[in-house]
Structures
1.
Amino acid sequence: MGGPCSIQLYAESENEAALHAKSAMDEVYRLEVKYSRYRDDSVISKINAASLRGGEIKVDDETAGILNYAETVLHESKGLFDVTSGVLRKVWDFKSGTLPNQLSIEAILPLVGWNKLSWGNGLLAFPLAGIELDFGGIVKEYAADRAVAVCLQLGVQHGLVELGGDIRVIGSHPDESPWMVGIRNPRIPEQAIARVPLQQGGLASSGDYERYMMVNGVRYSHLLNPSTGWPVKSLASVTVVADQCLIAGSATTIAMLKGEQGLAWLELLGLPYLAIDQNGVHHGSLQ
Amino acid sequence: MKTEKSRTLSALTSAALAIPAVAVSTNAIADAPPTMTEVGYRYSQYQEDDIAESNKVKDVGSTKRYDINIHQFRVLTPVGDNYSVDATFDYETMSGASPLGTIQGADGDPLLVMSGASIDDTRMDLNVKTTRYYENGNASIVGGYSTEDDYEAFNLGLEGEKHINDKLTTLMGGIGYSDDTIEPTPAPGRVTEEEKYTATTFIGIAQVINAESVLQTSINYAYSDGYLSDPYKLVDQRPDSRSSIAWNTRYRYYLGSLDAAVHADYRLYVDDWDMLSHTIGFEWHQNIDPNLRVIPSFRYYSQSQADFYRPYDNASIEGDKSSDYRLSPFGAVTFGLSAVAHSYNWKIIISAERYIADGDLALGTVETEHPGLLQYTLLTVGFDYAF
């Protein structure tokens, strides 16, 4: 799930906590296996194989729900958060330290765009072969919500699930004190720049420090605009708190992709947030 | 502004909530094989108190009763996605003397005729249970074999559980059959080889009442046919069949504020030998810290006598007769204390139990108390390890 994962639970005994945590982790593993790009037998691999043939594929209800959600996010982000844009990864190698040439970006851009596939009634069709879906930015957050759902089903009343920096809590600590979540300093990511109390719901962060390269003093981050194929000039980091980790995660991604309009969009959204701009100035109600 | 703000959030929220919650199998709610292999070992020392010299016929036999050392090995392992195998093997060595019968003493009270302390035996017992798990239940086949110097027994059974009502209710049932053969040490007038067959069946229901309590009740019926007497007794002749019904009820209540649980059990037993018994048990499971649980327990037992029980042996009486203390009227109490230290994949158990039977502890009045009523101490240490 990309990064360290942890589950903390309060239960009657350590044994019980361990058992419940295992059930929750099993759910995370289930989703990881189901939506991993790296496994041939995953739903994502089957979808992408159907796309390569220019064919169509019927998907299960859960995948359909995720696709509907992806479509909603695309719509709400005015086309910026697009699950087909993962293919740009092929030309953007952030480890290389060199920018891709414009021709290679233009060569791949035709394969980016949700509007180039057809989705409805559980059927995903690819009139244009070669479009790839990537549920990064959705599945990890959804998995945190699902892990919490499993814990709730098992009667857990206090706990915290963290999947690679995305967090969902189950209530507060038993003494009603909130969980304290450290927010990374976008310029010194191993340090916390703020600590946010979390009584319930989910918290997600996104930053230009996650994957990026510096070329001639300019920061190019992994947040790519699907219409240009180039990184956006974004905020340095955004943290959002929402009832569900999935929504917090989508909100941070959209706010980052919105670039200079990110702050205004967060204000409109109305969820508690902490945004740090390129000058290190903090914005939002979570300070 | 306000409309815009709530519109985006509500669009995301409703799309997120529309992702169907798929059925998730979790350890606690679905019937699934264990995820790990578990091995366990217990060592128990069972020691019966000596018979008081005044309770036995003077200078005949030993005052020393049974000592039994029990080694128990267990393996529980998942097999494939839907099966588990649970195997236990017991190895017991016993030594000591046992009552052969009773005679009337000078003061009218019965006196025990004890065997010499020469009885030494080894018992081995293997039981294997294979379980198939289904989405809402499980089915098991059980088989066992047990052997001693003079005894051999096979058993076979089928059991099942079905969860209904959102898994808040569990129905259970089973049938079993056993075939026991006894070949006593040869002696004049003693049988050489005898057999008995037992068929059992049970049905039960467990109900989750709320987050804190569970109630389980079951009815067990058993029918034995064949040689049911004790060939080593001087005078012992029992009916050649026995049918019994036992009603078991178990209640579990979790006290969150104390981090403790109460287990209360009741068992009513009746059979066509005219015996009736009550067993009431309490256990207090107290979590001391996340890795340590202490369990004090108390059990009370009382039984009436079998209709052919006689306090003194009298070979001249026609028909069924026995002076076995197990068929006599008495009551008993058991005090226990266990401690369980555990972590995610290991457990260490230490427990002690003291059992005292006495005529005065019976619910009714016992006119003639059997001189051979048991007192014993049982000490157990063991561990479980999962990997």
2.
Amino acid sequence: MELYQSTIHELQDKIKEGKTTATEITCSVLQRIDAVEEKVHSYIRVLKEEALAAATDADKEIKKGNIKPLSGIPVALKDIVCTKGLPTTCGSHILHNFVPPYDATVVEKLRAAGAIFIGKANMDEFAMGSSTETSYFGPTRNPWDLERIPGGSSGGSAAAVAADECIASIGSDTGGSIRQPAALCGIVGMKPTYGRVSRFGLIAFASSLDQIGPFTKDVEDCAIMMNVLAGYDPKESTSVNVEVPDYRQFVGKDIQGWKVGIPKEYFVEGIDPEVKAAIEAAIKTMEKCGAQSVEISLPHTQYCLAVYYIIAPAEASSNLARYDGVKYGFRAAGGDLLDMYRKTRMRGFGAEVKRRIMIGTYALSAGYYDAYYKKASQVRALIKRDFEDAFKKCDVILTPTTPTPAFKIGEKTDNPLQMYLSDIFTISTNLAGIPGISLPCGFTKSGLPIGVQFLAGHFQEGKLIQVASAYERKAQVEKRRPGL
Amino acid sequence: MEFEAVIGLEVHAQMLTDTKIFCNCSTKFGAAPNSHTCPVCLGMPGVLPVLNKKVVEYAMKMALATNCKINPTCEFARKNYFYPDLPKGYQISQYAYPLAEHGYVELEVNGGKKKIGITRIHMEEDAGKLLHDEHNPVSYVDLNRTGVPLIEIVSEPDIRSSEEAADYLKRLHEILVYLEICDGNMEEGSFRCDANVSIRPKGQKEFGTRTELKNMNSFRNVQRALEYEIKRQQYIVENGGAIVQETRLWDDAQGATNSMRGKEEAHDYRYFPDPDLVPVIVDAAWIDKIRVDMPELPQAKRERFISEYQISAYDAGVLTADKALAQYYEEVVAICAKPKQAANWLMGDVMKFLNEDKKTIRDCPIAAASLAEMINLIDAGTISGKMAKDIAEEMYRSGKKPQEVIAEKGMVQITDEAALAKTISSIIDANPQQLADYRAGKEKLFGYFVGQAMKATQGKANPQIVNDLLKKMLAGK
């Protein structure tokens, strides 16, 4: 097995045993990037020089016996997290030349944990999309089928892990942008509780929904990454000061007697039959693990998409107002101030971003606020309560991550509503602020990965690691690698 | 037809915190452009605001001082609009749930008292400044002021004249400065005022169409702008016209308000709760903690001065207009226990010196203890009031204590009766004609002899003793 194919825990063992070095691992991953990046296009920018220099430094530390949780591990960052001195584009023309003078808190944490930043991963522009097709830098392709999308918006981060172009990566999830691409790329992706991982330095899409999380090759790696990422940040007002457990302790623990909630509203028409079959099999596997499946109801499920597509664009319309050509990023020449504003934003933003800015601006406008934003906020509270009620009856909830496997590039670009529906099972999680994890549960006949999603109550990431780890061990989903 | 004006004021007061409202940058005025900035106040991508707790506490002080009800929960909202001095494209302010509401300030009107209602007090961040190049068609942006904390104090439309408006503003200003939460500097923009004004026939309940006045940077200009605007509106209405709801800018040089014309009015700020900030919870314990630390407010101090020191309402008003002056006065009185004399000296000579030098009591070279001693020396007869005037001037010039000045100038009053009698005796001897006239009934000449005695003693003679001696000796006793 090549080093680039390994998991974090496998590489850490090898480093500890002196069987490999950070430099060897980094070179292995860089070679893999050289070999497949042209086909997959996971990255907006590969940080070759920086990664090699960091690997050299890491090896010096390792030699001194200073081995940290991610020492020598090449990690990709979605190009939405700010990296000091390195361009951070958010997949947009308007920030194509933006170089932040600061690091995101997660970047600081990962660096302190020894991670080696291997590249800035591609993404839908400003994380608005479910296919990574709206990136100003061109689409990323699904490593399992290069004709298909990897999911989005963190498609580059997911594809990079699936294609072994990094060992783990960072994404952000506003309505499913970690879990959906994780499912479509056949890897593990977690969206933590809102407030669990610092948003400082994460370029905002919808502030009340955005959350950073990891993509990994297995559940144990997810726990290792969460140990590094989670924690209170005084630089973020919505960060929550709740104790962070050692997530790794939940790996391999049994779930005997657990109740797994199956929301009836999530098994309606429109689900691909192969996805449905895989999820039904997953439910059976849970029972084999000693858990009991119980039907639950999340009665406001039907409103999730509508609520999301008011709140997220409303916040986005305000969050993206700062890209006005005055201070940084792209500026179009204009006759006067208003003309400069208009041309900068007209040319700097892509169509999907402009669509959402318009939807959001409309939803917040005088005379419409009560009917849209305010109403949506009220329904959001009901959705949150649905989950609180549900978790009185079960320990975790199991759902499909996506209604279909990866679709073809260009298939839904002309139909935004169809595109939005691909997040139907992931959006409610963000509205409720609860954590969710997606992990592989099988393949379609044509060889496309299918994901299963587990949800838990606020700050119950440990439960998610436990249930996902138990499932992963019991299901023994065939270990395949994309045929790149 | 007789009209009455209906005026409501919106005051923005800059809070005197060391750091900005949502980041750790300095709030100091006058630094090099953009030197007090960081990614947070520059509105860079991905940065987040963290509320400065001091701002809430300062705003709570103002709320308590203006009899407002502090809401148990308040929240920040985004006010969205595009302008180059607003780096995020929105201002973080408060909208649906402000910090405090339903307060009032009391004014003295025609000998009575009148309450001006305070609708709300809320917290917000200031915007930056544009500097327009005089020679080229470019503007520069200075974001030092961006994120400097402000409170906005919105009054009810309870004000009925430009005088009342000015009076209300002075009261607010005085309270803010007393609380030491705002420096009150109108020229630097630490205290700014916008006015909403309309007119209606006296007795009518409905409001007329209002205009909003901006750009008035002194109490006097607020008063002048309102006077002008009230007259302008009256003229239009009396001539059958209709008031247009609009924003008008005061032009100081022109002495008139002019329509801003245009886009300003079309703004839809699309307020919504800022998802990057959490609601501010203010519990009773926190309010109590702030209340305990509240200083005595100007009105209470004025009333106390009148009753405790038995000074006039006017004197109490002057002495309490500036907290430092009031404190100085109380220090003087605490030592000399002569509140009236202390008030006279402070408001007379001392204030005159300070005004001439454009100084405030904070820079007064005369220590409160020195002024008190001087008053004691007058009272003890050691120096005369006339001498004291010279001594006070010298104390102000040199910062010396009264005894030092007296010793240096040999200014001690002569109270030695024998010595004075000898002097007077020689004066009488030298003026036989005046003595004869005086004894013949020309009593006015008494003053002449006093003058001669004071002249001979270089003004140091104790006037009372001179008077007594002269009366006796001129009578030939």
